Amino acid sequence: MLKKNTIREFREILGSNNCWNRPEDVICYSYDAAYEEPVSPDIVVKPGNYNQVSKIIGLCAEENIPLVIRGAGTNLSGGTVPLSGGCVLLTTGLNRILEFNKEDLYAVVQAGVITAELALEAEKNGLFYPPDPASMKVSTIGGNVAENAGGLRGLKYGVTKDYLMGVRFYDAEGNLIIGGGKTVKHATGFNLPGLMISSEGLLGVMVEFILRVIPKPEYSKSLMVVYNDIIRACETVSEIIASRIFPATIEILDNFTIKAVREAIKTEFPAGADALLLIEIDGHPEVVNKDFDRILKICNSFNGTVRVANNKDERDKVWEARRMALSSLSRLRPTVILEDATVPRSKVPAMMKAIQEISKKHDITIGTFGHAGDGNLHPTILTDKRDRDEMKRVKMSIDEIFHAALKLDGTLTGEHGIGFLKAGYLEGELGAGTVNFMKKLKHGIDSKNILNPHKMNL
Amino acid sequence: MAGIIYELSQLEDSIIRCMKCGTCQAVCPLYRKDLVEPSVARGKIALIESVYEGRLEKAGDILNHLEYCVLCGRCKQNCPSNVKTDEIFLKARAVLKKIKKMPGWQKSLLGFVMDHPERVTKLLPFLHVCLKAGSRRVGNNALRPFMLPMSDRNVVSVKKESFVSKYKGFNYAENERMRVLYYPGCSVNYIYTSWGKAVVETLKYFGVSVYVPEIARCCGIPAATMGDIELYRKMVNLNFDYFSSIGADYVITSCPTCEYGLKEIGERETKRKIPSRVIDILIFLDEVLKIDFTMPFDKKISFHLPCHYDCSYSDLPEKFLQRHFSSNYIPLKNTDCCGFGGTFSLKYYRDSKELALAKAEELGDKKIDTLFTACPGCAMHLTDALVSAGCKTEVLNPIEVLYEGIKSGVPNRN
Ligand SMILES: Cc1cc2nc3c(=O)[nH]c(=O)nc-3n(C[C@H](O)[C@H](O)[C@H](O)COP(=O)(O)OP(=O)(O)OC[C@H]3O[C@@H](n4cnc5c(N)ncnc54)[C@H](O)[C@@H]3O)c2cc1C
Ligand code: SF4
Ligand code: SF4
């Protein structure tokens, strides 16, 4: 509970229109897109300028109020749930694209800018901002940086971290910190943009970014490959990478997901296939066509039947169907839990086998799709949170999926972050020493631990 | 209170489908304006949940947030999990209204208007005169009342004589090839009477005899959005009974919200199948009569798609205009809801107008002469904003222009 005086001080900083503390307002900030128990903050604030941000942090520091930063609240790891109450700071009011530089190929944007808006601005300028999380129509750039968001194009174009050149943030005392800059080469001081990637709101309130944009690829080609055996599909992926071909995207869908999509929409996805690979190659036309021929051969050698999308319309339909994967699955049962355990690319077949076994062993429905080309699979658990017995088995399955990924030299999360949900597994992957180092780093910067406390168990 | 919580918990099976993914933020006109969670479907759903899960004590406090919604249906259409948001919101409003009761006068007025359309019709000349005397003309067919709290609105006036009192009964077509029932709805009956006239005359011209009800019964939607679901069901039942008694294959409408109220939620709430096919006049002309003509309309035109327009035909009106009117068609970038939302604009006028003004701005910038729409609610609300923005664009239903064309002998009958 906040003191009346403190609430008044918040109001003085923000005005009463951008500051809420009634139960029916703060409850709307008790959750995010992860499956977890909701917890309400005491107050929610929506600053409209940096000065207000700095003052809010100052007030929270003085009064020892936990401060949780929230963009669109679409993260899948409970990162924005204010576990011990306090203040939720919305970045949605800081939503301007400040500069788009076509000569030097960068954009300067505020934290609350929506990913798709930046992508659109780039496109308007004949350029390209590749990171494309499936949530890009709503996610904020601040959230993308704080979670190191990836997307379909990760294989060839990398993820958010590969585009972050500079960042401005306020530390736990409300001081402005400037990291990186507008030059391609930058060796001045610590690599603070690197530090803020995946910082999940624990190290500072980011307000502004400098992001790299690149020339648009000239030409692209999409193909769909149908398999009778999903393991052969996974082996195809490993072989393509081993042959040093880098398509923009290689996506996989398992039999269960294909069926779900077929039930949800009209699609060309074939009935009865055990797995599908969706591949897009882009770049210079000559190179694209050469790579295409090589991929064709590899697919054939693993018994995949190739269907080429011949025009834009067919291509759009294929990718639209892919985007429907999660939603089609989510329609089948009340509760959906989306995981993103990730393994080195050559281990995709082994990981797929492990998921299948876990699903059978615990009698849990799992549909798997994902970014096979990055080793980033999305085993999607379909369940009903009201069924206690089933939820126990779900929990065991999740544990085993993580352990399987770690055993294959993988990681807990490829793009969804640790937040609260995966905090308990962190030490298992990184070791006590590493967690301790992170703790020291966090507490050195934020001695009162006001910035997103409890997340990552820090 | 326990009863209320129990009734809300009945919504759990629909609500639990919401995976809190936040996708609805991208399409909700109110979220995009406010950028806060209570505006968007995900927030509203979480609020209802928090009441029946016992995390929020004063259930009545969430009603304001639930009523802050234009019911544009965008969240439902774009929800990956197929969450029936409109159904959830309307039911929750109805339950919560039991705590936060509608003021007595509001309830009686609503009941009176719906139960006795014939008496409202009798009051029309009086209302018409009052509005005229108490306001000044501000162009575009609109009046600005002097009286607070209406003095910031530009209202399209109610007409002296209702549409049905002039057209009720059979309107026979020469060379009759078909008979239909026309359902004018309140807005056309009292305000946009010219739309009604154009519908009847145009249909007659194409050989369709039109039966117009003696009494223009409300579809009930205003009651539903204000949380009086019983009154709403009663209206839907009366309308369905009426349609069966007439035995019409087609019931023509020119108000998508009436159509939505009768068809989609009407069927769901009464668990009855609608006895006739309710169809918008433009769809009827195009799909059933297959009319084919081109007429000159030498203006810069555009179209605003009403939220409740039959979604399987959402590109029909635009194509209709381009095919039949030789004019300069300019699409709009802003495809949002106009912000009207019926009772929403009464309670949240400022927010409602902000959305309409954003549209008016684009219309002004693009110097559109005529904005077409297919919903009298949108027409009324956009006219208000256009007048406020000092913009000369007129708002019409395509049927009005078509009827003008018929009068001057342009389109062929085939
Ligand atoms: C349907 C769906 C699909 C998704 N698909 C993908 C995908 O393909 N790839 C992917 O990577 N992710 C995906 N996600 C996860 C999520 O969208 C991303 O993690 C996204 O980057 C979160 O952005 P946000 O604005 O919602 O951040 P939020 O959820 O609001 O915040 C996420 C974390 O970042 C912190 N944070 C936010 N803004 C700031 C700031 N300005 N300064 C400091 N810290 C901040 C928060 O405290 C929190 O810990 C998906 C989610 C959903 C629901
Ligand atoms: S209503 Fe639909 S789109 Fe909105 S958060 Fe829930 S599941 Fe997602
Ligand atoms: S119906 Fe429209 S206004 Fe209401 S929550 Fe859904 S998208 Fe927003």
Strand content of chain A: 15-25%
Quaternary status:
heterodimer
Number of domains of chain B: 3
CATH architecture heading of the largest domain in chain A: 3-Layer(aba) Sandwich
By secondary-structure content and strand pairing, the structural class of chain B works out as: alpha/beta
CATH domain class name of the largest domain in chain A = Alpha Beta
> What is the CATH architecture annotation of the largest domain in chain B?
3-Layer(aba) Sandwich
Main beta-sheet annotation of chain B:
5 strands, mixed
Cα(first) to Cα(last) distance of chain B is 62 Å
Judged by helices, strands and strand pairing, the structural class of chain A is alpha+beta
Radius of gyration of chain A: 23 Å
**Count of helical stretches of chain A:** 16
Protein traits:
heterodimer; A: 458 residues; alpha+beta; Uridine Diphospho-n-acetylenolpyruvylglucosamine Reductase, domain 2; Uridine Diphospho-n-acetylenolpyruvylglucosamine Reductase, domain 3; Vanillyl-alcohol Oxidase, Chain A, domain 3; 4 domains; 5-stranded antiparallel sheet; globular; B: 414 residues; alpha/beta; Fumarate Reductase Iron-sulfur Protein, Chain B, domain 2; Rossmann fold; 5-stranded mixed sheet; 22 helices; 12 strands; binds flavin-adenine dinucleotide
